[in-house]
Amino acid sequence: MTHLLIIEGNSPELLEKMVQAGQLSDSQSYSAALQACQPELSIDFFQPYHADSDLTKLSLSQYDGVVFTGSSVNWSVDEPEAAPLRETMEKVFANGIPTLGSCNGMQLAAVVLGGEVASSPNGRELGMAKNIKLTDAGAKHPIHQGREDGYACSCVHRDEVSKLPPGAILTAGNQHSPVQAFVYERDGIQFWGMQYHPELSPERIAELVAGEGLFNTDPELAEHLNKVAQDSESESVAALGIKPSDLAPEMRMREIDNWLKMIQP
User: Fold this and answer.
1) Residue predicted with more confidence, 243 or 104
2) What is the pLDDT of residue 195?
3) In the predicted model, is pLDDT for residue 11 greater than 60?
4) Is 197 an annotated catalytic residue?
5) Beta carbons of 183 and 168 less than 8 angstroms apart
6) Could you tell me the pLDDT band of residue 225, with boundaries at 50, 70 and 90?
C-alpha cells in the first residue's frame, strides 16, 4: 500500500476557523483528492505550525511521497513566520522523498531550492487559472500527461514564483503568472509543483473567495463557481472563461493522478 504524508500549510488558528465554518482543512481536501484518484492509500498528516509538532520526531523513511498543501496565512513562504514550514520541506528533500506541492507548496519549494517569490504584479488570481500553456518541456513531462494545452484549473493566490530555482524546469504558465508549474529533479530531489489547485473543487474555491479571510473579494465569482460545480454546461462556464472539460474531476486532478502513478513503489 502506498503511504503518504500531507504537510498542512495553515496555522492552528486558521484551522480552527475552518472547523467553525464547517470547511475542510487544506490537508483534508488534499487527502480527499488523492483518494479520489487512488482509494487504497494510507495517509498521515503533519502540522509544522502547531506548537506541539516536533520535526525531530518525524520519521520520513516510511513514506512513499509527501504533499505540501496550499495556505491562507498572511505571510509569504520566505518570511520568518514560515520557518517551520521551510524546515519541514528541507528535511523531506534531504531524505530524497518524492514531493508534490500546490500553490503555497510550490512557492515554498521555489524558496527552499534557491528561487524567489513575490506578490504578483497582476494582483490576485482567483477562481480559475485560465489559458495555461505548456512549455515544450512540460508537454513532454509526465506531470501534465493528459492535459490539453490552454487548460484552466482551480486557483486562488496572491504570491507567485518570481524567480525559478537554478536547475528547475518550467512546465506551464499563463498571462497572469508565468510560473504555473515547475519540476525539480536533480541532486536527489524529485519535486513537482503547481501554482493552481488541482485538489480543490470549484465549491471549495467559492468558499475561499466569498468567506472571511485572505482571499474574500468577489461574491459574484463565488456564485459562478458554485453554479459550474452543479452544471458544467451553465452560462457561468462562459462567464469564467473556461471550457466544460476543465471542470471534469479526472481532468482537474490530472497532476495528482500522474504523480501517484509516478511514485508507486
Assistant:
1) 104
2) 98
3) yes
4) yes
5) yes
6) confident
Q: Would you give the distance in Å from CA 1 to the centre of its chain?
A: 24
| Residue that the C-alpha cell 454546461 belongs to | 233
Which residue shows C-alpha cell 480527499? 32
Please give the single-letter amino acid code of residue 116.
E
Pick the catalytic residue from 144, 157, 176, 197. Answer: 197
Assess whether 103 carries a catalytic annotation: yes
- Count Cβ atoms below 10 Å from residue 146 Cβ, excluding itself: 11
Distance, CA of 114 to CA of 221 (rounded, Å): 35
Alpha-carbon torsion 162, 92, 90, 49, what sign?
positive
Which position among 8, 125, 160, 199 bears the catalytic label? 199
Question: What is the distance between the alpha carbons of residues 118 and 91, in angstroms, rounded to a whole number?
Answer: 24
**pTM of the shown model:** 0.94
Q: Look at the block and give the residue holding cell 490552454.
A: 150
Residue 74 makes CB contacts below 8 A (sequence gap 6+) with: 214
